[in-house]
Design brief:
The protein is mostly helical. The protein is built from seven helices and three strands. A hairpin with a 3-residue loop joins strand 2 and strand 3. The longest helix has 14 residues.
Length: 169
């Protein structure tokens, strides 16, 4: 058995230290400050999942703030929209991804461009034209930038209902 194949038992304390270090949660400001620190954190982590749940603040901002004490939401906007060091893409979920990794997503992007995607099957052509017109006019958008008074009840049970009286519908 080679040295690489031998087991190396760890104590819980050692495993905890390794995990905290790998996540860069073991020091005060491991990435520095500002938009460059935001890009460095996303690059180190590989991606930061964009979370739409907003109780106190959206989860992806918590992830960055825990690693960048002076983190501001504008740092992420700067990294994405000005510096272009991170971009949004659907990995296993919508995420901020380091731009240096763009090359890994190009095959899937080309496939979706060529064949479409099942999620767009229900999108009306006029809605797609509306969004594309807004993007051409205003540049990158968030969902909040799209004014639409039409509320649609989502079909996915978790997406459209809140737990009530101890039961989920």
């Amino acid at each position: 058995m080679s040295d690489a194949e031998k087991l190396h038992p760890l104590t819980k304390a050692s495993a905890r230290r390794i995990w905290l270090r790998s996540q860069r949660l073991d020091s005060r400001a491991p990435f520095g400050a500002g938009p460059a620190a935001t890009a460095a954190a996303v690059e180190h982590l590989g991606y930061v999942q964009i979370d739409t749940i907003n109780v106190i603040e959206r989860c992806h901002h918590h992830i960055l703030w825990n690693r960048i004490p002076d983190y501001r939401r504008t740092d992420l906007r700067q990294a994405q929209s000005v510096d272009k060091s991170v971009f949004e893409y659907w990995t296993h979920a919508l995420s901020y991804v380091p731009t240096r990794d763009l090359r890994f997503f190009i095959p899937a992007m080309k496939l979706h461009r060529r064949e479409g995607h099942k999620w767009f099957a229900s999108v009306k052509p006029e809605d797609l034209r509306k969004v594309m017109r807004l993007i051409r006019r205003d540049g990158a958008l968030t969902i909040r930038d799209i004014e639409d008074d039409v509320l649609v009840d989502k079909e996915h049970l978790w997406a459209s209902r809140k737990p009530r009286s101890g039961r989920c519908n």
